[in-house]
Amino acid sequence: MSQPIRLKDHEKDARLVRNRVVVGAVAVILLICVLVARLYYLQIIQYDYHSTLSENNRVHVQPIPPTRGLIFDRNGVIIADNRPSFSLSMTRERAGNWQEVLDNIVEVLDLTADDRALFEKRMKQGRRPFEPVPILFELNEEQIARVAVNQFRLPGVEVVAQLVRHYPQGAHFAHSVGYVGRINEKELKTLDPVNYSGTHHIGKTGIERFYEPELHGQVGYEEVETNARGRVLRVLKRTDPKPGKDIVLSLDIKLQEAAEAALGGRRGAVVALDPRTGEVLAMVSQPSFDPNLFVTGISFKAYAELRDSIDRPLFNRVLRGLYPPGSTIKPAVAIAGLDSGVVNASSRVFDPGYYQLPNYDHKYRNWNRTGDGWVDLDTAIMRSNDTYFYDLAHKMGIDRLSSYMNKFGIGQKVALDMFEESPGLMPSREWKRATRRQAWFPGETLILGIGQGYMQATPLQLAQATALIANKGVWNRPHLAKTIEGQPPVDPNPMDDIVLRDKSDWAKVTHGMEQVMHNARGTARKAAAGAQYRIAGKSGTAQVVAIKQGEKYDRNKLQERHRDHALFVAFAPADDPKIVVSVMVENGESGSGVAAPVVRQIMDAWLLDESGRLKSEFAPTTVAQETAP
Fold it and tell me: How far apart, in whole angstroms, are the C-alpha atoms of residue 570 and residue 64?
């Protein structure tokens, strides 16, 4: 049976359509309301926030590193300047796959695998986000052109013109001025992140390191408008950086060159001071090195050659070289003996060629095995008589001897502006008990009296001890900076002057030092021959290897580097000192024969004019050849 035909309900269909239209309309209205509300929230309520965010995407603040201050010698000769150079920089965040970009750089510029490794090392060093990192310095015109042509392959890479530190005098001042180098991760954590924005180099050694805050300056900045790719479109605002302060050093390049020439290529150290001010006139550590190698990054091979050299060119012998002062310390010991009342100028000791402690069989030898007979203070200094100073040290005792030597700067840092200085060592009972867990023995006091044993000093400390004698006890700390932006440096912690009970003791010791140079029996009389001024000096020998009791020093049995060091200290003119010189020649053996002539050449270079006459600013003195008493 057939089904009945259903009739279409148009009213029902119309209601359904109307309901759907209403629901759809309500949904559309609700969505429009939500959209309008969201637009209102974003554009009205959060207008300030999003406008600032948009502006930050368009406007960037870029740091402008300051120009580093210049360094001059006392005569205005430039020692450290800034040379314009083109460098290749990469911003890692804009480079994408920066490892691939480095590969492209090596390919484009036809570089080596070692260069690639160095680039990667620099990119991995500590830095701030979005800060460009210089990876290659001193690009030539061809390299700049290659980068420009292949820019599409090098995202985040750009050629930047900048000033790079340069040392036109090369190795002359490497150990005094020092050098700058790239900021490492450890330094990055301690530096002011704002002031060092955009700065990639910092002082590593010497004056460059000590006066880093003054030399660096104050960072500037500029607001720039950029496109979506980070390319600068225009500069909106600029605040110029404040350049670093210029520093004038007390060093004299002519005296520096004269000191280097006087050393004659031998390993050693020279320091010359003005005792009236503490200014360092010359500071030489040989052999030296070219500090320019370190500015933009020294190669592994070049650094290995310097580091592994047996002559140690990187080692600053003036500030860090520790040597037994030998007989150069005897004038200071003599001052201590006079001031403590242990001896006076006429006190005499009989020298048979050795000294013995009471109830001891051991003989402490004088360098003159035959002895000098009866010796007073003047003769003891002139002849560098060990027996006299053995006896003097024994009478003083270690406690008083150590105390007086500390006043002369032995065992402590003496410089005002040299970070690398070693304090040396002036032993005492307490020191030996703390470090060796042993008692102090009388024989150890004896050998300290002639500058041997545990005592160690740097050439700078010996120069300062000699300057104190020349200056009659007035302390002027040695310093390299003469002026900083026109102002002299200030000693924040001045040392106490050495005040003697009898001021004439200074003259007594100075007279003995003059006899060393100008007496027929003086140990360094040959070095003073023909001098137009009076010199007060003292030689010294520092043992490198010990010699057994009863044996004599035989240079032929020793390797060259095991032979004694030669030392000499002096000041001139003796009656009104203008210069103090300390010389150490490694393995030079004879202080009087090797180091003293070096001192004489340096003093001539400072005190005499080109015609060989005493300069007008130095009062002439009469040189009288004295005879032995």
Answer: 50
pLDDT digits (tens, 9 = 90+) for 14-39: 888 888 888 888 899 999 999 898 88
Quickly tell me which residue has 């000093």 as its tokens. Answer: 457
Q: What are the angstrom distances between the C-alpha of 534 and each of 514, 530, 578, 584, 603? A: 7, 10, 11, 22, 11
Neighbours of 233 (CB within 10 A): 10
CA distance 246 to 207: 12
pLDDT at 618 over 90: no
**What would the pLDDT profile of 543-571 be if each residue is shown by its tens digit?**
776 655 555 656 666 677 778 889 999 99
Q: Are 298 and 305 in contact (CB under 8 A)?
A: no
Give pTM, 2 decimals.
Answer: 0.83
Let me know: does 282 contact 580? Beta carbons within 8 Å. Answer: no
What crossing angle do the helices spanning 330-339 and 386-407 adopt, rounded to 10°? 80
Q: Domain 61-227+235-249, what architecture? A: Alpha-Beta Complex (3.90)
- Which residue, chain included where needed, has tokens 């600032």? 52
- Residue 306: HSE in the Cβ half-sphere, 13 Å Cα cutoff: 19
Neighbours of 271 (CB within 10 A): 30
Beta strands in 199-242 (DSSP E): 201-203, 220-226, 232-239
User: Tell me: the pLDDT tens digits for 506-540?
Assistant: 999 999 999 999 999 999 999 999 999 999 999 99
* Residue 464 near residue 273, CB atoms below 8 Å: yes
Number of helical (H) and strand (E) elements in the chain, helices listed first: 21, 20
Could you say which DSSP state residue 47 is in?
A: H
Active site residue 327: yes
Report the alpha-carbon distance of residue 203 to residue 224 in Å, rounded.
30
pLDDT > 90 in the chain, percent: 60
Geometric angle at alpha carbon 75, from 72 and 79, rounded to 5°: 25
Q: Is there a contact between 85 and 162 (Cβ–Cβ < 8 Å)? A: yes
Pairing outcome for strands 180-182 and 157-166: unpaired
Domain ranges of the chain: 61-227+235-249, 253-290+316-487+503-607
What kind of architecture, by CATH, is found in domain 253-290+316-487+503-607?
3-Layer(aba) Sandwich (3.40)
* Pick from 223-227, 260-264, 447-451, 491-495: least confident: 223-227
Contacts of 333 (CB under 8 A, 6+ apart): 389, 392, 393, 401, 404, 405, 449
Cis peptide before 423 (omega within 30 of 0): no
Catalytic-labelled residue, pool 327, 384, 402, 590: 327
